[in-house]
Amino acid sequence: MADPEQFLPGRLFQQRWTIVRCLGAGGMGSLYEVVHQRTKKRAALKVMKPELIESRELKERFKQETMLTASLDSDHVVSVFDGGVDVTTGAPYLVMELLTGWDLHRELVRLKRLPRADVVEYLRQSAYGLSKAHDAGIVHRDLKPENLFLTRRDDGSPCVKVLDFGIAKIVAESMSRANTTRSIGTPVYMAPEQIRGEGTIGPAADLYALAHVAFTLLCGMPYWTIEYASTKSLFALLRAIELGPKEPPSARARARGVELPASFDAWFQKASANDPLDRHDDAVELVGALQAAFDRDETPPTQRDLGGSA
Questions:
Q1: Do the domain assignments include residue 28?
Q2: Residue 46 within a domain
Q3: Among the options 82, 103, 142, 206, which is catalytic?
Q4: Which H or E run includes 56?
Q5: Is 146 in the same domain as 52?
Q6: Which residue from 40, 49, 51, 259 lies 20 to 30 Å from 278 (Cα-Cα)?
Q7: Cα–Cα–Cα angle for 141, 106, 271, nearest 5°?
Q8: How do strand 102-103 and strand 92-97 relate by DSSP bridges?
């Protein structure tokens, strides 16, 4: 395990990044604000727990994934400046642009649910970032509101950036090799092929997750909340996801006081189809189809949810 004193304010990391303060800690590791010794550029340092990636081969893969992610040129993918595995602690790390704002999970907690126009715009921007990554052969594998960060441009307009590309894949392989049942990824957004443990997980898995993120943002809770709440069993939840939805999303939304049109049901059915080949061709097309579904909505405006409190 990493020595906590190594990350105290003022300490030097990798002989070039000075620790400023801890921004938070979670199940994957800790996040720090750092400043480059020479350029004085401020950044965010994510230090993962060493036990998440233990084999030498996967550590090398992590370095490669980090550099591949760093090569992505998109306004909607968080910029990566540095990364690898710290020799002293064995901890994988990433140095990224320091963002101001909060993720869409926090935005959802703040507003309870989001207006349709905001959901479409946030997902459209996310789709631009995803498409750049998919074109480069990178699949996220753990899309969720927590990994979509809402910041603001200089003119005040919203800008969504996708976080944590490449991490879920490497960690999942590490856990598999260690024969552990630790959950990597977030089940309520995981595509059926991920749950089945299929060897090749492609961009379609991210499209499935994006569809479920849309439902969560619109309604204030994930589609699969009912299945998990009724059994408290992760196995039962994963089995339900494998079998596919039994209830139209509009029915579940209505129970939360949100009106979604039948056109949304049709969109959701395709976007989250069990067979990856039945989903949309790419993320930008998926969000365009969502906008079109809302454009076809014949529900009187006074009956639609406008993103107010629950």
A1: yes
A2: yes
A3: 142
A4: helix 56-70
A5: no
A6: 259
A7: 40
A8: unpaired
